[in-house]
Design brief:
With 205 residues, the protein is mainly α. It contains ten helices and no strands.
Amino acid sequence: MANTEAQLGRREKRKQEIRGRIEEAAYSLFQRQGIEDTSIEQICVEADVARRTFYGHFPNKHALLGDLAISRLWGRMEPMLTELMANHSNTRDRLEAMIDYIESNFAGMNEIDRQLIVTGPAALAQDREKQQELGNSALESFQHLIDAGVQLGDVNTRFSPEILASVVVGSLNILTVSWALDSRFPVFAKLEEARVLFEHLICKD
């Protein structure tokens, strides 16, 4: 039984390694030559995998775009919040560090990253379960931060943690998509407004 579980664990680890290699190869090619001009064949060559292996992980390039958006962009939110919880002892500092982290991320992004932000959710349009999983994960992570603040006694309890988390997640999503759709959108100025809003709405004076 133990040997079977170990084999399954190794198999799953190997599967994830190959999937990660495909994603890294695709992202590298997208950066060099653009999303539209990159073929599945080129991704397979770059990742050193057979086409059959590619299709074992992704039914098409559109699905790969969705996974890339999750792993490189949306998927970073939960680990970031976990780190903030560990490194900062109060809610105000955690919110400040969160906005700093997001601004730093945006500063390092380029046109391909913006395209992934836009195309990623569209690639998941047919996968309602995955969409719900991502949405719930983001809300639960922010709600955990706010619940922790309630325990510390530094969070405004006039509003429920659920609605506060929804305001934060909704605001950040709107700002992110607005910037992705229009590079002229003043995302850093808006994030600074969000910093003030979140502190005013969530933190006790």
